[in-house]
Amino acid sequence: MATKSTRPLTPSQRFTTISTSKGLTRKRPEKALTEPKPKTGGRNAYGRITSRRRGGGHKQLYRIIDFKRNDKLDVPATVLAIEYDPNRSPNIALVQYTDGEKRYIIAPHGLKVGDTIIAGTKAEITDFNTGNNYPLALIPFSTKVHCVELLPGKGAQLARGAGTAVTLVTINDNGYAQIKLPSGEVRLVHARCRATIGEVGKGDHNKISLGKAGRNRWLGKRPRVRGVAMNPVDHPNGGGQGKSKGGGGRQHLSSPWGQLAKGFPTRRRSNRSNSLILVRHNGRKPRGKK
Q: Is the pTM of this model over 0.85?
């Protein structure tokens, strides 16, 4: 998906870079595959703000995405449309199986209207085309995949954002696949977990520049005030005589509730999946690994 810049006739157009609609199907979403998405304004059931800086925004419908793709095995499907989804960074593809059922999937890079895809249980060397879904045990090494499961049958959890992909490194004798994530982390996933061939489309999504504050409000994002600009009663980094990088004192930057913002490890050491991580995103090996 390409991006385009506008002529700088106004201050907002001077900095605006948006994605084009080239290749997208201009139609309303499939009604049977949508459901309401009520606005919360960041409030919980008691009306208290639990997620700050949310509110307003354009009305949206939620598109139901098939992240599992395990109940239509070995049934071919034809791509009917490539559509925009306001709920996620990549585009989505509407596919129709030979029995007539329609579903949405994440649209990989290179998938076009009219292509045929399949979620299979067995594969030949010529079957690893973009959009096909297989267990990791059947996929060749060094293949780029996306929408990878963490647990067999749970549904895709890894590499679902625009332009992301996971590389399959190898499969060990214990039935676990070694994969490399976009962050550089290397971890183990069970070889029965399913993944889709190719990388997620709309790879230049990170080049988009909204250009003006109002476009953020359309997305439901309200203004953000820096903690160092607040008073001490409102934020730990507030107060001080004049500007201060540390918030008026020598304390570290933190959240309003004292959670350190920089350099503080947020992953728990008691996390059970720590044993599956071979190399962390910073290139270091976890404790106890050689």
A: yes
